[in-house]
Amino acid sequence: MVQKGKWVRKSDKIIAFHKIWNLHASDLPLPSKIQEYMANHKATKKDVRQAEKRRDRNRYYGKTTRNTVRDFRALKSNKEANDQLPDVASQIDKLAKRGIIHKNKAANLKSKLAKRANALAK
Length: 122
Description:
This protein is mainly alpha-helical. The protein has two domains: 1-36, no CATH class; 42-121, Up-down Bundle (Methane Monooxygenase Hydroxylase, Chain G, domain 1). 62% of the residues lie in helices and 5% in strands. It is built from four helices and two strands. The protein has helices at residues 18-21, 42-73, 78-98, 103-121, and strands at residues 8-10, 13-15. The protein has a two-stranded antiparallel ribbon. A hairpin with a 2-residue loop joins strand 1 (8-10) and strand 2 (13-15). Helix 2 packs antiparallel against helix 3 (78-98).
């Protein structure tokens, strides 16, 4: 059984027993900083380091693109939308090329943004 102050990680979700032990949510550790197993081999340790770098880099690219898409959707003029559409589409294509999002999702996003830009023209 789980003791007080211990956490169990199951399928990438932290099961907190805060109701049982009367803990506050701020006492919970951040999910990304919990290590389930420690690597035993040198190559595995290196792979863990590389995966962490890739994850951080991919999160940065994804978040930056989401912000760009959000800003694009907030545009009100057709001229601005037509000027920014190629840059936004390029960022989305790069995410698909890197494997951060699926290529079909990228195509759907670009299609919706192009529709929005065309709708502003009317």
